[in-house]
Amino acid sequence: MLPAGLQLGRRTVRIGVTGLARSGKTTLLTSIAANLIAHGAGLPALPALTARLGARQMRVALAQNGVAAMPRFDHLAHLAALANDPPRWPSRTGAASLLSLDLEIDRTGLAAALPPRQIRLELLDYPGEWLLDLPLQGQTFADWSAATLERLGRNPAAALARDFLDFVRSLPDDGAVDESLIRHGVARYVALLKALRDEMGLALLQPGRFLMPAPGAVPDWMQFFPLPGASRLAAMMAERFEAYCQAVRDDLVSPAFGRVDRLVVLADILSALHAGPAAFADMAGALGLVAEALRQRRSTVDFPQWLSDWVPDWVPGWIAGLTAALTGISRTAFVATKCDHVAQRQRGNLARLVSSLTGADGRTASFAVAAVRCTEDIAWTLDGRTISAVRGRVLGSERPLRSYPGEVPDHAPDKAFWQYPFLSLPTFEPARVPLNGRGGVSHIGIDNLLVFLLEDLL
Amino acid sequence: MSDSRIRPRIEFEEAPAPRLDFDPLPVGVAPTGSVMPESGTVSTILTGIAVLVLGMALLQTLNFVIAQFDRSFVLGCVTLVVGVVGFGLIGSGVRRELRGLLGLRVVDRLREQLADPMQARQAALEWLATLPEGPLLAEAVRGANDPQTIPALLRAGPLKALRERSEALGRAAALQIFAITAAVPSPALDGVLVGWRGARLVRQVAELHGLRPGLFGTLSLLRRTAMAAGAATATNLAVDTVTRSLLSNSIVGHLAGDVAGAGVAARRMVVLARAAATACSPLDPA
């Protein structure tokens, strides 16, 4: 059978867009869709893509969803919110959705005489919370429990987690399996995870499906919480943890959420810098774990087990790598969003900071982007010195705001960095959207991101 | 060691400022559908000739009416009435032509607005107001939450009905053409009949869509129909035949070669009706 991505005359490429909490996933998807469609209409919305294509044309059209089970990503409604006067930022989405675009790209060289290359580009809004389930693979329940409880006992989570930790400590070592006790513990653990996400802005919260359950009834194997020791209760929890990990593995190859060819992982690094060293360490830990899990998945999960068993040991490793490249996530982009909240001079640092947190290899790259630009760069004289800052209108106000939130480090910040607090990011008003969105959306770096993701197809 | 870093800062400016706008439309890029070609040399010359002929005729008529009043009051009145009626009819014809041409522009505008999620609802309601069954669907359009639903509602409702009626007109024309071309022995006369019936069919379809094209409106509509058929890729020849039959000076010679038989000509009428419906409709049928 042909690979799922190869259908008669048209190749399907699925880009999963996911991100840590409040990283701007909906806005990024809206911007990508609007700018690709504007580019297809001949408007200069994506300069780097235009340069990459040269004299060739790329036509873009919204594709029909057909009988797809996944809800359609409503980019027009989000675009309308941005184009309104006064504008609104798109509201947070709570469920996975999919947007399909049909691309027609003229061929180059000797193949120019052939019909244009046809690509179905599927943009999958993948729940960010689920991303943090990837690092669970390969861990035992005991290891995960120990690491989680240790993290909850430290700042900044310790204050909120005290009640749950007391509850866990109160459970007897030889505790019997009592379903009502388990459900009580799970309810407290889920409430704690939600509080840590919503009140503290933490990202490294596992299991991810506890925060964003899959559609349908909650199965019994989701009834567990971190618990140390070797009691019968802990053994039951360990069984459920294994079943949970298996469900995550099944999802990774399911038609709905699997088959992701390229992945974009978003993170609001600037807000984490503002939240302080503990919150930044939490985000850095989450990003690092995800990056490592993706690297491991590339070399194991996507490689078919039966083929792996059949291939003798003397076969060179590059064949395994090639197979993984053909069947798994071929490119991953780690993206720091809202980069227009700092001046142009610092955006390079922001991309390098993401790179230092996630590591880099041939198939991974880091970017600093603003999906919808809302500030302009200015030179601002402070304390007798001229610095680069940004200026924009805050949502709901007609007076512009000048902002110099602080210096962005190009690697994980040290103690000296935290002497001056990195200021919070104002909620700026999005810049005017030309032609009600038909002319694309002003952005920073979306074109470079697309060139990286689609490079082999252009 | 002193820290030379500048403290982070955020400050409001005193004066209000407009919303940031990074992307004024690039020079040379206009919204879809608003590109208006400049008048050609031939059009300018023809317009000049028309102004000269009509203007001079009007002046001559006025002089003549004044001279008639000098001769006799009754003669003057009769000449004045003749002049007013004559030029009134010409003016009425020109007005109808202009309205016909303007109607085609309205289709262009509606097409542009329906493609824009922000204006689709208002454009749909405006178009529905011109159709007999429009009020039935207006409520559904007002209640549609999703801008993409509006074109779908129009396609499923009035657009489908209009296409069915257009095709019925095409089939009726096809029957007539089949009967006529089978009975007429001259291929040259066949061509003239096909051209005449095709132009009439295009006008009928236009009237079905609320347009009332005059001579120039029909010529413009034929050009649009040819383009719509070109987009459909399968119907070039059918429309080309009719278009050339009206626009070419050597109508008979061309058509005699193109219209091979009664069956072919009749089938082309159906295709022509579809293409004309596409040209007159503010939405693509897809």
How many E strands of chain B?
A: 1
Cα distance, first to last residue of chain B?
A: 73 Å
Quaternary organization: heterodimer
Shape of chain A: globular
Rg estimate of chain B, integer Å: 27 Å
Terminal-residue CA separation of chain A: 26 Å
Helical residue percent of chain A? 25-40%
Q: Give the overall silhouette of chain B.
A: extended
Query: Biggest interface and which pair forms it?
Result: A-B, 52 and 33 residues
Strand content of chain B: under 5%
Instruction: Give the overall pLDDT of chain A as a whole number.
Output: 82
Helix content of chain B: over 70%
Number of strands of chain A: 11
Structure characterization notes:
The complex is a heterodimer of chains A (458) and B (286). Helices cover 39% and strands 16% of the residues of chain A. By secondary structure, chain A is α/β, with parallel strands linked by helices. In chain A, the strands form 2 sheets. In chain A, strands 1, 2, 3, 4, 5, 6, 7 and 8 form an 8-stranded mixed β-sheet that branches. In chain A, strands 9-10-11 form a 3-stranded antiparallel β-sheet, with no helix packed on it. In chain A, a hairpin with a 2-residue loop joins strand 9 and strand 10. The longest helix of chain A has 23 residues. Chain A is globular, with a radius of gyration of 23 Å. Chain B contains 10 helices and 1 strand; from the N terminus they run E-H-H-H-H-H-H-H-H-H-H. Chain B is extended, with a radius of gyration of 27 Å. Helix content of chain B is 72%, strand content 1%. In chain B, helix 4 runs antiparallel to helix 5. Chains A and B meet through helix 3, strand 10 and strand 11 of A and strand 1 of B.
